[in-house]
Amino acid sequence: MKTDDEGRAGLLYGIGAYGMWGLVPLFWPLLKPAGAVEILAHRMVWSLAFVVVALLVVRRWGWIRDLARSPRKLGLITFAAAVITVNWGVYIWAVNAGQVVEASLGYFINPLVTIALGVLLLKERLRSAQWVAVGVAATAVVVLSVGYGRPPWISLILAFSFGVYGLVKKKVNIGGLESLAAETAVQFLPALAYLLWLGSQGSATFGAEGAGHAALLAATGVVTAVPLVCFGAAAIRVPLSTLGLLQYLAPMFQFVLGIFYFHEAMPPERWAGFSLVWLALTILTWDALRTAHRSRAELAAAERAAAEAAKAAGADVASVDGPETVAPAPHDAAAAPTPARPA
To answer: What ranges make up the beta strands (E) of 120-229?
Structure first.
């Protein structure tokens, strides 16, 4: 019962995380007239403030000592902070520049880019279906390039930056809240210096547009951290295959918002490109589910075989070492038991 409750809670956490990420394009335009770089700097500063409060609540500080003792991990965290800075900045700019649909494409193709990075950087081997999915996605990029009259560079930057970020995070291997704290600590001083410089130039919007606007800028920390906390709660409660399916909620929400709320154009060639991307993701998801099912079946078969072998071994031990046990002669194995002799 507890496991079922945790599974349901994990599913709700996952839907909440990806739902918030999917609806975040509604938030960034509220921060105008602040520009994308100013919003990004506030996001870095206020995210650190939020996660420090969260860490004070949960009292998790031991990871800082371990991280400080590992120059390699510190270097990876710094690199991750730089990569996610590019991702955040391009995404905020894209939304406020009316490119929500193209931004959503970046997160649709991110799983495919992650696979491609695994082949290029980690020398991983792909299954046939994965090769097909990557090939269909590459065709989609060509079709969309024709449709846009240029490569969909916003999508590609978002997909590749987030893909590289995921690879680096995998190597660092620390919790989501702790990782965000470390990354925003790296970002904090440059972001704060930029905001102070902006204020000295009289170009900062923080405070100049009223208390409500200032509160919204401060809320960028909450908007950044809360979905990540929900994601962390989901990751420990639901299978990875479920999270893999839930991840498509965010770009789907963004895509729908781009068309129906922001009224972005979708000519036929863009529909064709997106359809190819969705086909590639369908192939990828089908292959992942099939592989997971096969792996579970093989594991269950191995466990049954091990249990039967252990049972057989136990029976053999009992036949040899059991009290007053007489093993039948080979030719008498099928015969009826011999009655006991009278005393």
So the answer is: none
